């Protein structure tokens, strides 16, 4: 029983990390129809700069982690907004060009990070509590999983409330449905779309910092690795469905943990099989809209 509980909670923690990365992908695609392969760059640069600032200010403390998270969110939002403003804005409705350009940014980003910080992982320091465990019903749960789960819940609630309860959220949703009508009302929809990218980048930035907590290191390939699972989560949940991404992230991560433990480390294979099954049985994903 304790083993099952441990795998379940650690799976929820990993799922929370997947969701933080996938939420930005799902938001950007759902509202703007852009499959952003450069999303991993937002995550990686945020993780590196968050680590650089934290180690100079208060490394290995809660204050350092909070500063790192804040830097990650700001950097992720700024880089994502700049990417939309200078590059993606000229490529709306040109999906092949979008894919090629964002893949190019992703590859160039990895090369840039390796040139600056090297190709080897850089191990990070975290508050002592995050490296400890809490016993629940006989299972010793790593404390960092609780932090990941809490942050993912806050991000999900925050994005949903923003889209449904704020003026900009209304403008964004209206602009997606009928851009010409909103523009005719004198509203600059382009500014709202830049904001969508910034929100997605901020979520990725926070995910990058928390990935360094989960894995214990930052590296030039951190975003690339997580981006693979983020796309799987986004497709399984349903392209553009934020709730679907949350459900799929938990499903993927929990199955991955159980398969790794009980089926000899075959977690990644099980996830790929799940993806194939969903695409065959329900191509639009668990909660995606019908075409």
Automatic annotation (TrEMBL):
Membrane-related topology note: Multi-pass membrane protein
Alphabetical list of Pfam families matching this protein: BPD_transp_2 (PF02653)
Coiled coil feature spans: none
Cellular component terms (Gene Ontology): plasma membrane
Record keyword Transmembrane helix present: yes
Biological process per Gene Ontology, one example term: amino acid transport
Lineage per the UniProt record: Bacteria, Bacillati, Actinomycetota, Actinomycetes, Micrococcales
Listed InterPro entries: ABC_transp_permease (IPR001851), BCAA_transport_permease (IPR052157)
Family: Belongs to the binding-protein-dependent transport system permease family. LivHM subfamily.
Name this protein carries in UniProt: Branched-chain amino acid ABC transporter permease
The keyword Transport appears for this protein: yes
Sequence intervals crossing the membrane: 6-27, 34-51, 63-87, 99-117, 146-163, 193-215, 227-254, 261-281
Source superkingdom: Bacteria
Intracellular or extracellular location(s): Cell membrane
GO terms of molecular function: transmembrane transporter activity
Entry keyword set: Amino-acid transport, Cell membrane, Membrane, Transmembrane, Transmembrane helix, Transport
């Amino acid at each position: 029983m304790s083993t099952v509980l441990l795998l379940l909670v650690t799976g929820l923690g990993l799922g929370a990390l997947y969701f933080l990365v996938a939420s930005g992908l799902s938001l950007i695609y759902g509202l703007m129809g852009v499959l952003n392969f450069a999303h991993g760059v937002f995550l990686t640069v945020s993780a590196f700069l968050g680590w650089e600032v934290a180690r100079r200010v208060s490394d290995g403390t809660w204050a350092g982690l909070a500063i790192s998270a804040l830097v990650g969110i700001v950097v992720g939002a700024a880089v994502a907004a700049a990417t939309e403003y200078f590059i993606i804005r000229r490529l709306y409705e040109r999906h092949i060009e979008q894919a090629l350009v964002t893949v190019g940014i992703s590859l160039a980003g990895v090369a840039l990070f390796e040139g600056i910080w090297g190709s080897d992982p850089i191990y990070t320091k975290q508050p002592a509590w995050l490296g400890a465990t809490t016993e629940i019903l006989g299972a010793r749960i790593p404390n960092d999983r609780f932090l990941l789960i809490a942050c993912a819940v806050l991000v999900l609630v925050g994005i949903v409330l923003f889209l449904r309860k704020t003026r900009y959220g209304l403008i964004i949703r209206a602009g997606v449905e009928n851009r010409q009508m909103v523009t005719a009302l004198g509203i600059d929809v382009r500014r709202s779309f830049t904001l969508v990218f910034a929100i997605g980048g901020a979520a990725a930035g926070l995910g990058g910092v928390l990935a360094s907590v989960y894995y214990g290191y930052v590296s030039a390939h951190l975003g690339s690795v997580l981006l693979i699972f983020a796309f799987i989560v986004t497709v399984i949940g349903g392209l553009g469905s934020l709730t679907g991404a949350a459900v799929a992230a938990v499903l993927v991560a929990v199955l991955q943990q159980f398969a790794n433990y009980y089926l000899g480390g075959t977690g990644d294979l099980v996830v790929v099989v799940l993806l194939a099954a969903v695409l065959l049985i329900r191509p639009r994903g668990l909660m995606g809209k019908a075409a």
